[in-house]
Amino acid sequence: MLEINKKRYKKTMEFFRQNKTWFLSLEIIYKWLPLVIFIAYPIMLVCVWMFMSEKLLKVLFVPAGVFVLVTALRKLINEQRPYEKYEVPSLFNKTTVGKSMPSRHTASAFIISMAVMYVRFDTGITFLLISALIGASRVFAGVHYVRDVLAGAGISIFCGIVFFF
């Protein structure tokens, strides 16, 4: 069951609002883990440029292509977000209207992780785990459905396998 219903959504939001430790943990994952990935990516690009220049074009253009593809799909599909559909505020005051499917944060994190895996496999596995946490945080924060996150991850993993491996 990939669809969250109103009752489950409200219950999840209520749980995090009433449990400060869980709320803080989710907030750290939701707000700070994407920064880890998105700061590491340009650092990796510089390292690849300096030491593995033959891989530079792939690690630069494949993530950019996935970002453009996911952005276009979001506009085309223009699916409501859970907080819109159920008229319950998201945990972190997100107010974007529509463009829920697929999750761009999740897709970006996963394709960057696939690029890291292409450059250094063991580090890429760690990045994939971080990406999974980022995706889960989007659902628990009430800004995406499970299907949005799975679609974003799936697109990126598929493109990563096709273009990097």
Task: Explain what this protein looks like in three dimensions.
With 165 residues, this protein is mainly α. Helices cover 76% and strands 0% of the residues. The chain contains seven helices and no strands. It has helices spanning 6-18, 20-51, 56-77, 82-85, 104-119, 121-140, 146-164.
In short:
The chain has 165 residues and is mainly alpha-helical.
Order of helices and strands: HHHHHHH
**Into which percentage range does the β-strand content fall?**
under 5%
Number of strands: 0
Total helical segments: 7
Uncertain regions: pLDDT < 50 for 5+ in a row?
none
For the biggest sheet, the summary is:
none
Mean pLDDT: 95
Rounded to an integer in angstroms, the radius of gyration calculated over CA atoms is 16 Å
Briefly note the structural class of the backbone: mainly alpha
Distance between the termini: 32 Å
Helix content: over 70%
Name the overall outline.
globular
Give short descriptive properties of this protein:
165 residues; 7 helices; 76% helix; mainly alpha
Topology summary:
Elements: H1 6-18, H2 20-51, H3 56-77, H4 82-85, H5 104-119, H6 121-140, H7 146-164
Helix pairs in contact: 1-2, 2-5, 2-6, 3-5, 3-7, 5-6, 5-7, 6-7
